[in-house]
Every structure is written in structure tokens, then in C-alpha cells.
Amino acid sequence: MNHNLTLDQKLQYIGVQLALLKKNPKSEWVDLENTIHEASLEIAKDSRLFSLLASWISVHGDYVIIEKLMKLQKNNNSPWLVALAISAYNLGFHQWGRLIKKQKSEFALVDLELAKSSIALKGEEAAFKKYGFFIPKGTIRIRAKDVRTIEQLIKDNPQYKNRLMYGASWRSDIITAIQLGIKTPYQIAKTLGCSYEPALRIFKEYQLVMGE
What we know:
Elements: H1 7-14, H2 32-41, H3 48-60, H4 66-75, H5 79-90, E1 107-108, H6 112-122, H7 126-129, E2 133-134, H8 150-156, H9 158-166, H10 170-179, H11 185-192, H12 196-210
């Protein structure tokens, strides 16, 4: 995985339409879940990211490994990832419900008091309130045109392509790691953050199928 790219570059690589940036090579692996989690941590600084990520989820929400996001949350909780999960759940991606939990503090995409004042005038996105988020109606703009289509993304993102072929699972990512040249099960497990046992098992299965 490349840790030298900017967040904008990573977002573009997973399919968020931003200002034109230099394309990354096809062999580059920018992890879907790590990028979503990293971007969600920046929402407090740039609220526009929330609508962009919600738009991405509205198109690609079925191809995310929720267990990976849960693991990232355990290591570094992102309140706004919870809010994105609420948005995803309301769009029909019910697997995202596993990420939803009530927050101990109150959150808003802008200043909290300003958000509450706006809610008094416009109403609110009610699904978020009971979990600690105060979002005035009309704040979230979900637009499919802000993200690349499934057909477009599978051409340039091998991790995403394998999610469609093998499902949103550790298997798909382990196969992606093998295809991108990671040589041993230990390196695969370390890179992905998965357990060694499935990395070894799927590595051997892949070798068997490929006749290696």
C-alpha cells in the first residue's frame, strides 16, 4: 500500500471525482476502507467530505468490508464514520448498521450551535439525532455524478474489481495482494491487517488454481 499519496489522490483512486489529478499506476493499491476511514477523520476540518463520501457509498456501499472498518474504528474511532454508516443504512445498505452506535458527545458538520439554529428554521435529518449528530435538512448532498461508476472503477482499481468477483471479503483482498506481487502469506497478513491463517490458506489455494 502506498502511504506517500495525499488524501485527495487516494480518494480519486477509489473513485471520488475531484479536481483532475495525475493518475496513479494500475499496480498502485490504495485500500478502500483505510481511505474511507482516513477521510472520515478529516470531516471535522472539511465538512464537504461528508457529502462526497456519502455519495461514494450510495454507489459502492455493497463492496466495502464492514469488518475492516470495524477494526479501524476500534483502533481509532471516527464519529463521522458512524454518521456515514447511518446514511448508508438509510440508503438500504443494512450491513453498515454494524458500525452505528450512539456517540458520547454531540457533533455537527458546522458549529454545533449554528447547526441547532439552522435545524430550528429548516428541520433536521432525524435519523442522525438519536446517535448524537445534528444535521439540518438539505445539508447532505448525495450525487452519483460526484463518483465514478462501477464500470469505470473496475478498470483501474484491482482491489475493487476483485470485490465484485469474490465479494466484499478478506479473500478478495488476499487475492488482490497476491496479484499485486506481495510474495508471502506473512507479508500479505501484515499488509492487510488480517490473520495469518486465511492469508496462508488462500495463498495456497491460489497457487493450486494457478498451477504454481
